[in-house]
From TrEMBL:
Protein known as: Predicted protein
Superkingdom assignment: Eukaryota
Species of the source: Micromonas pusilla (strain CCMP1545) (Picoplanktonic green alga)
Length: 139
């Protein structure tokens, strides 16, 4: 699920459609729609927070549209750490959209740069990493 923060207010949690959610142990890239807030001004930053695994794991607040600036197109890079068939940790950060994705998602790039175009979409890349326990007492 996701929630947004802008103009000093936070929204309630909203479920994502299944097509926007990660598939266990399968890397993927999705475009998550961001609805236009009714009271968003050009001076406001738009931040989102994501929740995974039945709300067991939350990301920090991530700025996807900074106030007043023309930023690079953002991508949220989410890493799931898996041990013994379950998610044990989630890490997420906003990074500039890679060049290959810029070409592949031209319409979303244009939408991002047009302040009046809504809903906007943020590209989210899901990656899965194995985490192994080390038995310090084992031989």
């Amino acid at each position: 699920s996701r929630r947004a923060q802008f103009h000093g207010e936070r929204t309630a949690w909203h479920d994502l459609l299944a097509t926007h959610c990660p598939t266990f142990d399968r890397d993927g890239v999705v475009a998550v729609p961001l609805p236009r807030p009714t009271n968003l001004s050009d001076d406001d930053a738009y931040k989102i927070r994501l929740s995974f695994d039945s709300d067991r794991h939350h990301t920090d607040w991530m700025t996807v549209i900074p106030e007043k600036k023309e930023p690079p197109v953002p991508m949220i890079d989410v890493a799931f750490y898996v041990d013994d068939g379950r998610v044990v940790a989630v890490a997420a950060q906003v990074v500039p959209l890679p060049r290959a994705y810029l070409r592949e998602h031209r319409a979303l790039v244009a939408e991002h740069h047009d302040r009046g175009a809504w809903p906007k979409h943020v590209i989210v890349r899901y990656r899965w990493k194995k985490r192994f326990r080390v038995d310090v007492n084992g031989g």
